[in-house]
Amino acid sequence: MNEPPPLNLLTLKKVIMNKMAFLLAIVVSAISVNAQTADEIINKHIEAMGGKAKLLSIKSIYMEGTSVMQNGTEISQKSWKVDGKLYRQEINSAMFNFAMVVTDKEGWRQNPRNGGAFEPMTAEQVANMQTQMDCAGAFVDYAAKGHKVELIGKEDVEGTAAFKIKITYKSGNEANFFFDANTYYIIRMSAKGGGGMGFGGGGRGQGGAGADTERFTDFSDYKKTDDGYLFAFKITPVGMGGGIYYEKIEVNKPVDPKAYKPEVMQ
């Protein structure tokens, strides 16, 4: 039986190059499909939240809610957002009062241990909080904002199938968001460090900033405001008890100029 002639060096090189090109095409295709899938999920989320035009029409948000701690202490929380200009949060209870004011240029935190005086935040802290001022949410035009996204996969969240997408903000901070595979609402987020009960902003894709401990926050009870804007009216820190129930969410209402200042609002 005749044996095939041996491959010369040039032929062997062509075979290897063809195989490498084929493998490279598979890798590029997989990356492309993964990116398209992440974008597809994000686009469906945006549509579920009312559509891009609706979200971009949000110029300010006021949220007011209450929560009950594990020891029974009732806490009230208020927050103001002005798109790209302001994030203010106030937390009040019988035990303590806290306020934080962040603008596009500077920020302050109220220190309960210093008689409630407002103290300047560091430049890094201010930079990390800038995503909280994004009223439309970080996923709307995420690439133009300097953020990156990556589809991690599909996971179970308390019995609900959810797509997990990691977002890397322009600041370098990272957060994971879990999108209900049926409704495409955000039902959970995780991020390392702070943000507390306030981070997340009604299921719009904002994250907190902070240290090494990963914290999870659940979003539920999605409802529309009187003017048709969709929000999660309940935000629950996983494993910490309680949760915030929002009684009032207002969109595009005038914001008191005092909200921009490091002082107590009356």
Key phrases:
alpha+beta, outer membrane lipoprotein receptor (LolB), chain A, 3 helices, globular
Topology (SSEs and partners):
Layout: H1 9-48, H2 52-56, E1 60-68, E2 74-82, E3 86-92, E4 97-103, E5 107-111, E6 117-120, H3 123-128, E7 148-157, E8 160-168, E9 174-180, E10 186-192, E11 214-224, E12 230-237, E13 244-251
Antiparallel strand pairs: 1-2, 1-13, 2-3, 3-4, 4-5, 5-6, 7-8, 8-9, 9-10, 10-11, 11-12, 12-13
3D structure, described in words:
With 266 residues, this protein is α+β, with helices and mostly antiparallel strands. It is built from three helices and 13 strands; from the N terminus they run H-H-E-E-E-E-E-E-H-E-E-E-E-E-E-E. The protein has one domain (46-260): outer membrane lipoprotein receptor (LolB), chain A (Clam), CATH 2.50.20. Helices cover 19% and strands 38% of the residues. It has a 13-stranded antiparallel beta sheet. It is globular. 32% of the residues are buried. Residues 25-36 and 195-200 have low confidence and may be disordered.
Q: Please compute the radius of gyration using only Cα atoms.
A: 23 Å
Shape: globular
In what range is the share of β-strand residues? 35-45%
State the low-pLDDT regions, or none: 25-36, 195-200
Largest sheet: 13 strands, antiparallel
CATH topology: outer membrane lipoprotein receptor (LolB), chain A
Mean pLDDT across all amino acids: 84
